[in-house]
């Protein structure tokens, strides 16, 4: 009885300014929800309107509890999101169930819609970015920023930063071997060099390092960073190689240092350790971090599993792993996945393929901030190639792989709750 009283009091305090007798439950299970991806957009929109939201961890796939009003109902109908109007009594019963010590569930208050930045060049590139695609599809607003903005301290205006498919080492994505004569590669290289010179750097690698260091400071200062594909390992490689020339002459005009592998400082990285850099410039690979060339998995068997955490004791990884399935389809990328032996011991491996000893989805803390690295390029395009058409998310509104991206988008909105482990 005391537990129920506490729940009722907390519930009334949470919705203290509401005069409604009903609430909107957005279920996120596999059967009920017709559009999981747009459900995140509704939740973000509700926060923008100044409404109260609770994220019900592990309840029906990580459902959302919103204040009921006509505007929110209409928005759900317009966007094709399944929702249920429930009474305050029903809501209290749900929260009572969630609060039970026997249930691996928790209710997390979402306070404010985070301001989002996507790090991406302004010019059109020959590939698409999964995060930009899903943010646009979910109708979650974001700003596109690039090197000039980062070096001009514009990151201070944002809570969440996504790193586009990017090369922070100054090796132009390691596309030299296959695409050095392609018009888009030549133009991209020219633009990168012109930008570096404009910003006062003699090499692209030096300018990209400066950007990586600013992003590092953003995270250390309390920001949230999310990266996919080659932005994950190239970012850490750039940090580890600070002050060391690892670029061959076709990238920066002079040879690399002969013994550069011995000069790599793994203490500077976010997630990875003890990796070996690939010296051959025509090989489409940065280092031994990536598992792409080491994978022995048939496409039909290519899945990775999400870890299960205690919602009440470990809310952060629980939020980041909310889904309507624990098994996620695998997908390729320049950086497909991470060799487990290169992942630092203080980094959480939240998604992995144990049979191939590869991590797919990892999370860590750096200073006052946090980062998440997600291997692969597009969760609904198994082997997205340069020039392929972009993924149409109208065909994949319930994508569990894309849900992991959106978990990270909403994560900074959560009311800070001290982690117990």
Could you characterize the architecture of this molecule?
This protein is an alpha+beta fold and 421 residues long. The chain folds into 2 domains: 2-110, Alpha-Beta Plaits (2-Layer Sandwich), CATH 3.30.70.790; 116-413, Class I glutamine amidotransferase (GATase) domain (Rossmann fold). It has helices spanning 2-14, 36-48, 70-79, 88-99, 130-138, 147-151, 176-179, 183-198, 204-220, 230-240, 249-252, 315-320, 400-410, and strands at 22-26, 53-57, 63-67, 84-87, 106-110, 116-119, 143-145, 160-163, 224-228, 303-306, 327-329, 338-339, 348-353, 358-366, 369-374. Strands 6, 7, 8, 9, 10, 11, 12, 13, 14 and 15 form a 10-stranded mixed sheet that branches. A 5-stranded antiparallel sheet has the order 4-1-3-2-5, sandwiched between helices. Helix 1 (2-14) crosses helix 4, helix 2 packs antiparallel against helix 3 and helix 2 crosses helix 5 (130-138). It is globular and about 70 Å long. It starts with a helix and ends in an 11-residue tail after the last helix.
The CATH architecture of the largest domain is 3-Layer(aba) Sandwich
Q: What composes the largest sheet?
A: 10 strands, mixed
User: Can you tell me the CATH class of the largest domain?
Assistant: Alpha Beta
Radius of gyration: 22 Å
Q: H/E series, N to C? A: HEHEEHEHEEHEHEHHHEHHEHEEEEEH
Helix-residue proportion: 25-40%
Spell out the key features of this protein.
Alpha-Beta Plaits, 2 domains, ten-stranded mixed β-sheet, five-stranded antiparallel β-sheet, 13 helices, about 15% strand, globular
Summarize the structure.
The protein is of the alpha+beta class. 31% of the residues lie in helices and 17% in strands. It has two domains: 109 residues, Alpha-Beta Plaits (2-Layer Sandwich), CATH 3.30.70.790; 298 residues, 3-Layer(aba) Sandwich (Rossmann fold).
């Amino acid at each position: 009885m005391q537990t129920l009283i506490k729940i009722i009091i907390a519930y009334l305090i949470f919705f203290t300014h509401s005069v409604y007798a009903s609430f909107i439950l957005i279920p996120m299970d596999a059967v009920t929800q017709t559009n999981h991806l747009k459900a995140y957009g509704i939740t973000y929109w509700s926060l923008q309107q100044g409404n109260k939201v609770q994220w019900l961890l592990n309840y029906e796939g990580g459902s959302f509890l919103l204040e009921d009003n006509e505007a929110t109902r209409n928005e759900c109908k317009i966007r094709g999101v399944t929702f249920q109007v429930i009474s305050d009594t029903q809501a209290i019963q749900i929260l009572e169930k969630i609060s039970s010590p026997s249930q691996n569930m928790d209710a997390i208050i979402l306070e404010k819609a985070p301001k989002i930045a996507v790090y991406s060049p302004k010019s059109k590139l020959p590939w698409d970015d999964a995060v930009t695609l899903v943010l646009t599809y979910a109708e979650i607003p974001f700003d596109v920023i690039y090197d000039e903005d980062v070096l001009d301290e514009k990151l201070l205006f944002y809570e969440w930063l996504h790193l586009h498919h990017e090369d922070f080492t100054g090796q132009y994505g390691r596309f030299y071997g296959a695409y050095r004569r392609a018009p888009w590669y030549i133009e991209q290289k020219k633009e990168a060099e012109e930008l570096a010179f404009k910003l006062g750097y003699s090499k692209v690698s030096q300018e990209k390092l400066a950007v990586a260091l600013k992003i590092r400071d953003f995270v250390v200062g309390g920001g949230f960073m999310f990266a996919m594909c080659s932005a994950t390992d190239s970012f850490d490689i750039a940090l580890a190689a600070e002050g060391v020339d690892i670029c061959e002459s076709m990238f920066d005009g002079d040879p690399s240092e002969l013994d550069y592998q011995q000069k790599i400082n793994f203490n500077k990285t976010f997630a990875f350790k003890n990796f070996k850099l690939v010296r051959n410039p025509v090989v489409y690979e940065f280092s031994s971090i990536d598992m792409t060339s080491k994978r022995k998995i048939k496409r039909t068997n290519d899945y990775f599993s999400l870890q299960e955490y205690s919602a009440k004791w470990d809310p952060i990884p629980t939020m980041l792993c909310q889904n309507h399935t624990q098994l996620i389809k695998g997908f390729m990328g320049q950086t497909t996945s991470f060799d487990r032996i290169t992942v630092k011991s203080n980094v959480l491996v939240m998604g992995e393929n144990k049979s191939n000893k590869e991590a797919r989805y990892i999370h860590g803390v750096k200073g006052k901030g946090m980062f998440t690295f997600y291997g692969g390029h597009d969760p609904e395009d198994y082997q997205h190639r340069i020039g392929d058409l972009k993924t149409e998310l109208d065909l994949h509104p319930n994508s569990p792989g894309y849900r992991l991206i959106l978990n990270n988008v909403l994560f900074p909105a959560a009311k800070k709750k001290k982690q117990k482990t």
